[in-house]
What we know:
It is built from 23 helices and 13 strands. The strands form six sheets. Strands 5-6-9 form a three-stranded antiparallel beta sheet. Strands 1-2 form a two-stranded parallel ribbon. Helices cover 43% and strands 9% of the residues. The N and C termini lie far apart (102 Å).
Amino acid sequence: MNNxxxxxxxxxxxxTTEEIEKKYPKRGLKSGAEVTRFAPSPTGFMxxxxxxxxxxxxxxxxxSGGVFYLRIxxxxxxxxxxxxxxxxxxxLTGYDFMPDEYQLKGGVTIGNYxxxxxxxxxxxxxxxxxxxxxxxxxxxxxxxxTEGLEDVKKMREKKFAVGxxxxxxxxxxxxxxxxxxxxxxxxxxxxxxxxxxxxxEKIKFTDCIRGEIxxxxxxxxxxxxxxxxxxxxxxxxxxxxxxxxTTTVVRGEEWLPSYPLHHxxxxxxxxxxxxxxxxxxxxxxxxxxxxxKLSKRKDPEADMxxxxxxxxxxxxxxEYLINLIxxxxxxxxxxxxxxxxxxFPFDGFKNTANTPxxxxxxxxxxxxxxxxxxxxxxxxxxxxxxxxxNCQEKVEFLTKNREYVTKILNIDREKPKPRKDLYKWxxxxxxxxxxxxxxxxxxxxxxxxxxxxxxxxxxxxLDLSTKDVWFAKVKEMAAQLGYATDNSEYKKNPNAFKGNxxxxxxxxxxxxxxxxxxxxxxxxxxxxxxxxxxEILKKFTK
Length: 542
């Protein structure tokens, strides 16, 4: 069979690979500069795991003086979700990880290596498929899709992963005449790689974080071009990463079993293989303490939009992920509490290969620390921005009561040890419900009679002129009611007193805030005003 004739039969005319490669010259970057890409499929929301990989991509490129670009891999058009690519771009720009090169759907293209949507690069893939056919490295396959294709695919992948011999596709043995007859009959065809593997030999390659890996070579006649003219990921990424000058590919460890196929495709195309980082998949613990993958269906925190909707500071989300990638970040942050996280010597090539566990409690702690360092004015602006995007019914109140809300946010804030109870803006109105009306719930008191006695007496001792005067009056009242005003005396002989001043303050605090613990009680009551405080005290002593 004359392979060149076959290639022309399958793909008459069209651009040549030589013509294409002239349009994609090598990038003129300094030595050591890395070119990375974030290449998601627009088949759903922006997953936390995808953003985790984008964070590595961005930092590798930027810290080396290279290029970080966005490529949308939209060849699986049956699963594409409208608006998904726009969400991806919004998340990247919202977190200040603006790609150097990108394409807006139906709009502007920034960069000279596009199109950056794979669905717009069909002619490129066609040309390289034609080239492989002309060299006898690929062949047309006329096999029809069958029911249960996904099950077949999974079964074949499992066989391949454990090294079982992959059967060669029967269409690789068709004669030119048979192929010609099929085309005349209007049969659609896919293009398959004519694998040289026998299912026994092994290859070695070096993963940037896992070191040297030995794995069985590919023996599968894998599909390169589907019968709709669109490529598989395997084929497209080899071509696009080469033409776009990608030096390092960051992708999930689930792609490790596919590496031998990619290895063979790069070799068949005559392309230099990029470096690979197969980053670990993010897991979480279920109710029984067992690990499972962070799920799109089960876990709202898998969706990057969750963090904006809840009002987590973007800095906190980024710092949490950096700590999963580079475990020394936590020590660096402790030694540099006020430094910008961008000053951390991030190293994408020292990404841990261990499975990271998603921990919302840890994220909350980081967010508390981030918010505690903001001024009250900054907090107000972030809170208002969150409300405008996610809670419109609060915008008018926040706008009309800016000064009051800012004072609430400033309670226990600009101090050597600022409070750390607020970790997302959506919790503000619940956390400070007592500043906007009655608390939604009240913690139980140990003695209702003592509680009411203290509140009844306090109505006559309330004085908010200064903090010192306020506390002196509380102590005076406590002594009159039989409570210790000297804690050391109370510890020596607790049975001689009803309790100590702390217990008296706890009763007042519960009446005002509904809680045994709250920010500074004097500041809370001062903002509420004496009249409002007295009104609250009377409510408990009718």
